[in-house]
Amino acid sequence: MNSWVVATYDSAFGYVSAHGAPLVDLLDPQPGEKIIDLGCGTGALSAEIAARGAEPLGIDGSPALIGQARMLNAGLSFTVGDAGDFTVTEPFDAVASNAALHWMTRDPDAVITRVHAALRPGGRFVAEMGGAGNCAELIAAMQTAWREFGLAEPELPWYFPSPAEYATRLEDGGFTVRLLEYVERPTRMTEGPNGAADWVRVFASGPLNAVPPQAVESLLARINDLAAPALRRESGWMADYVRLRFAAVRKPDSSALTFDMRRPESAHT
Ligand SMILES: C[S@@+](CC[C@H](N)C(=O)[O-])C[C@H]1O[C@@H](n2cnc3c(N)ncnc32)[C@H](O)[C@@H]1O
Prior knowledge:
This protein has 10 helices and 10 strands. By secondary structure, it is of the alpha/beta class.
């Protein structure tokens, strides 16, 4: 098990062991808190946040998923928005995100900047995402099969940062990192009995759509052959997940100080 813990996490209810704890426990929503669920999908995390008495706002770039989230979670708030480009009208106590930040490949720093702007000083940013090496066997099988079929290198739609890289981005973006975990988490592919092929169909539909239709089935069969030695067990297929989870806090606002230094006369007016 590869685990790198920068610090322990001190929740409002005392020490919480970060490793293996559900994300909502790291977030530790308090009754009445306003919390954004960024890349909310169909709203599973929003529902957990609401169950703790906090007020979630789910934001997702997909109108279809926001539609489903509204249907599945009557009474909760959801809106369509791009994580790299959203604004809110009042400061939030926390931003949470599950399995979504690694899909936001265009500009990871813009996402951190928008999260920072949405939070009050001291507000929390708590998330889990794919980390460096996530699905490495699956991706290697994909790349090999693409090459064997004479196809151009597939354009991968994910951003899987190392812990050091993402911590630096958070610090540069105005956050203090309180906890950062980097763990291997082999995960049973319960929803994909056809193993690596199903995984590619669901999660790499972009690159797959660029493959000539007549080659798709044999390409997927080859990916299964290539991935099986590493990922197929007697009990079924396992995905080689590597996760990054973190809890960071927006640093206190220094704008008042900056203002005073720039306009010393303001003290006399
Ligand atoms: C794997 S799903 C995770 C959904 C949900 N958080 C969950 O745990 O079930 C990733 C989500 O991120 C959303 N997403 C990807 N890029 C986004 C962006 N730039 N802005 C907002 N949402 C985005 C997708 O639409 C999708 O719903």
